[in-house]
Amino acid sequence: MISRPQMRRASRALSPEDTDALIERGEYGVLCLSAPDGGPYGVPLSYVHLGDSLYFHCADRGFKLDCIRFCSRAHFVIVGETRPVYDGSFTTLFESAMVEGTLEQVQDGEKKAALLALAQKYLPEYVEEHARQDILRSFDITTVLALRIESRTGKAKRMRR
Protein backbone atom coordinates (compact mmCIF):
# COMPACT_ATOMS: atom_id res chain seq x y z
CA MET A 1 0.00 0.00 0.00
CA ILE A 2 1.17 3.49 -0.82
CA SER A 3 1.95 5.75 2.14
CA ARG A 4 -0.15 8.92 1.96
CA PRO A 5 0.73 12.23 3.62
CA GLN A 6 -1.16 13.35 6.70
CA MET A 7 -4.31 15.40 6.12
CA ARG A 8 -3.25 19.06 6.09
CA ARG A 9 -6.27 20.22 8.11
CA ALA A 10 -6.29 17.32 10.56
CA SER A 11 -8.87 19.13 12.72
CA ARG A 12 -11.39 18.46 9.94
CA ALA A 13 -10.80 14.70 9.84
CA LEU A 14 -13.88 12.61 10.46
CA SER A 15 -13.69 9.74 12.92
CA PRO A 16 -13.72 6.25 11.38
CA GLU A 17 -17.34 5.88 12.58
CA ASP A 18 -18.43 9.17 10.97
CA THR A 19 -16.56 8.26 7.78
CA ASP A 20 -18.34 4.90 7.65
CA ALA A 21 -21.71 6.63 8.25
CA LEU A 22 -21.06 9.00 5.33
CA ILE A 23 -20.07 6.07 3.09
CA GLU A 24 -23.30 4.28 4.05
CA ARG A 25 -25.63 7.22 3.38
CA GLY A 26 -23.86 8.59 0.29
CA GLU A 27 -25.85 8.50 -2.93
CA TYR A 28 -23.03 8.42 -5.45
CA GLY A 29 -19.34 9.06 -5.84
CA VAL A 30 -16.66 9.47 -8.46
CA LEU A 31 -14.50 6.48 -9.31
CA CYS A 32 -10.99 7.70 -10.11
CA LEU A 33 -8.87 5.48 -12.33
CA SER A 34 -5.71 5.56 -14.43
CA ALA A 35 -6.35 5.43 -18.16
CA PRO A 36 -4.26 3.20 -20.44
CA ASP A 37 -2.59 6.32 -21.88
CA GLY A 38 -1.45 7.26 -18.35
CA GLY A 39 -3.98 10.05 -17.95
CA PRO A 40 -6.68 10.31 -15.30
CA TYR A 41 -10.24 9.06 -15.72
CA GLY A 42 -13.11 9.76 -13.35
CA VAL A 43 -16.68 8.55 -13.65
CA PRO A 44 -19.65 9.20 -11.34
CA LEU A 45 -21.31 6.00 -10.11
CA SER A 46 -23.97 4.81 -7.74
CA TYR A 47 -22.69 2.25 -5.25
CA VAL A 48 -23.50 0.11 -2.25
CA HIS A 49 -21.28 -0.71 0.73
CA LEU A 50 -21.25 -4.32 1.90
CA GLY A 51 -18.65 -5.58 4.35
CA ASP A 52 -15.17 -4.47 3.29
CA SER A 53 -16.14 -3.58 -0.28
CA LEU A 54 -18.00 -1.01 -2.34
CA TYR A 55 -19.94 -2.45 -5.28
CA PHE A 56 -20.75 -0.87 -8.65
CA HIS A 57 -22.57 -2.20 -11.69
CA CYS A 58 -21.93 -1.38 -15.32
CA ALA A 59 -22.10 -2.76 -18.84
CA ASP A 60 -19.89 -5.68 -19.80
CA ARG A 61 -17.51 -3.50 -21.84
CA GLY A 62 -16.35 0.09 -22.07
CA PHE A 63 -13.56 2.50 -21.24
CA LYS A 64 -13.98 2.10 -17.47
CA LEU A 65 -13.21 -1.62 -17.79
CA ASP A 66 -10.26 -0.86 -20.09
CA CYS A 67 -8.87 1.41 -17.37
CA ILE A 68 -9.34 -1.25 -14.69
CA ARG A 69 -7.53 -3.83 -16.81
CA PHE A 70 -4.69 -1.31 -17.18
CA CYS A 71 -4.52 -0.59 -13.41
CA SER A 72 -6.89 -2.03 -10.83
CA ARG A 73 -5.95 0.50 -8.12
CA ALA A 74 -8.65 3.11 -7.57
CA HIS A 75 -9.97 5.92 -5.42
CA PHE A 76 -13.68 6.50 -4.88
CA VAL A 77 -14.71 9.97 -3.70
CA ILE A 78 -18.06 10.47 -1.98
CA VAL A 79 -19.41 13.96 -1.38
CA GLY A 80 -22.06 14.34 1.28
CA GLU A 81 -23.85 17.54 2.18
CA THR A 82 -22.41 20.82 0.94
CA ARG A 83 -23.61 24.33 1.68
CA PRO A 84 -22.05 27.67 0.80
CA VAL A 85 -22.16 30.12 3.73
CA TYR A 86 -20.91 33.53 4.71
CA ASP A 87 -19.57 33.59 8.25
CA GLY A 88 -17.39 36.67 7.96
CA SER A 89 -15.84 35.23 4.81
CA PHE A 90 -17.00 33.18 1.86
CA THR A 91 -16.74 29.46 2.57
CA THR A 92 -18.44 26.13 2.02
CA LEU A 93 -19.51 23.65 4.64
CA PHE A 94 -18.93 20.12 3.37
CA GLU A 95 -18.36 16.49 4.15
CA SER A 96 -16.54 13.96 2.02
CA ALA A 97 -14.99 10.52 2.15
CA MET A 98 -12.24 8.95 0.09
CA VAL A 99 -11.92 5.20 -0.27
CA GLU A 100 -8.83 3.54 -1.75
CA GLY A 101 -8.42 -0.03 -2.84
CA THR A 102 -8.26 -2.54 -5.64
CA LEU A 103 -11.07 -3.26 -8.08
CA GLU A 104 -12.07 -6.71 -9.21
CA GLN A 105 -14.97 -8.15 -11.14
CA VAL A 106 -17.19 -10.41 -9.04
CA GLN A 107 -19.28 -13.39 -10.11
CA ASP A 108 -22.20 -15.60 -9.15
CA GLY A 109 -23.45 -15.25 -5.56
CA GLU A 110 -21.43 -12.15 -4.73
CA LYS A 111 -22.61 -10.50 -7.95
CA LYS A 112 -26.26 -11.31 -7.25
CA ALA A 113 -26.00 -10.11 -3.62
CA ALA A 114 -24.46 -6.81 -4.76
CA LEU A 115 -27.18 -6.23 -7.38
CA LEU A 116 -29.91 -6.95 -4.83
CA ALA A 117 -28.24 -4.59 -2.33
CA LEU A 118 -28.08 -1.85 -4.98
CA ALA A 119 -31.79 -2.30 -5.69
CA GLN A 120 -32.56 -2.22 -1.97
CA LYS A 121 -30.53 0.97 -1.46
CA TYR A 122 -31.96 2.96 -4.35
CA LEU A 123 -35.47 1.57 -4.95
CA PRO A 124 -36.48 -0.50 -1.91
CA GLU A 125 -40.18 -0.30 -2.76
CA TYR A 126 -39.56 -2.33 -5.95
CA VAL A 127 -37.24 -5.02 -4.60
CA GLU A 128 -39.80 -7.69 -3.74
CA GLU A 129 -41.86 -7.38 -6.91
CA HIS A 130 -39.23 -6.60 -9.57
CA ALA A 131 -35.58 -6.83 -8.52
CA ARG A 132 -35.03 -10.57 -8.72
CA GLN A 133 -36.57 -10.92 -12.20
CA ASP A 134 -34.73 -7.85 -13.52
CA ILE A 135 -31.42 -9.09 -12.12
CA LEU A 136 -31.90 -12.52 -13.73
CA ARG A 137 -32.90 -10.97 -17.05
CA SER A 138 -29.73 -8.85 -17.34
CA PHE A 139 -27.33 -10.95 -15.23
CA ASP A 140 -25.15 -12.14 -18.11
CA ILE A 141 -24.67 -8.68 -19.63
CA THR A 142 -24.10 -6.84 -16.35
CA THR A 143 -20.68 -6.44 -14.80
CA VAL A 144 -20.35 -5.97 -11.05
CA LEU A 145 -17.15 -4.52 -9.66
CA ALA A 146 -15.97 -4.67 -6.06
CA LEU A 147 -13.63 -2.05 -4.68
CA ARG A 148 -11.86 -3.95 -1.90
CA ILE A 149 -11.37 -1.24 0.71
CA GLU A 150 -7.79 -0.85 1.89
CA SER A 151 -8.12 2.61 3.42
CA ARG A 152 -10.73 5.28 3.92
CA THR A 153 -10.67 8.82 5.21
CA GLY A 154 -13.33 11.41 5.82
CA LYS A 155 -13.20 15.16 6.12
CA ALA A 156 -15.74 17.83 7.00
CA LYS A 157 -15.99 21.54 7.55
CA ARG A 158 -18.86 22.39 9.85
CA MET A 159 -20.16 25.61 11.39
CA ARG A 160 -18.25 26.66 14.46
CA ARG A 161 -20.38 26.66 17.57
What are the defining features of this structure?
globular; 28% helix; alpha+beta; 161 residues; seven-stranded antiparallel sheet; 4 helices
Task: Give structural notes.
The longest helix is centred in the last third of the chain and has 15 residues, at 108-122. A hairpin with a 5-residue loop joins strand 1 and strand 2. Helix 3 crosses helix 4. The protein contains 4 helices and 7 strands; from the N terminus they run H-E-E-E-E-H-E-E-H-H-E. By secondary structure, it is of the alpha+beta class.
Tell me the strand order in the biggest sheet. 2-1-5-6-7-4-3
- What is the strand content? 35-45%
**Tally of DSSP β-strands:** 7
Which term fits the overall shape? globular
Mean pLDDT, nearest integer?
90
Given helix and strand content, the structural type is alpha+beta
Biggest sheet features: 7 strands, antiparallel
* Poorly predicted sequence stretches spanning 5 or more consecutive residues: none
What's the arrangement of secondary structure elements?
Elements: H1 16-25, E1 28-34, E2 40-46, E3 48-50, E4 53-59, H2 63-70, E5 73-86, E6 90-106, H3 108-122, H4 127-138, E7 142-157
Antiparallel strand pairs: 1-2, 1-5, 3-4, 4-7, 5-6, 6-7
Short description:
This protein is an alpha+beta fold and 161 residues long. Helices cover 28% and strands 44% of the residues.
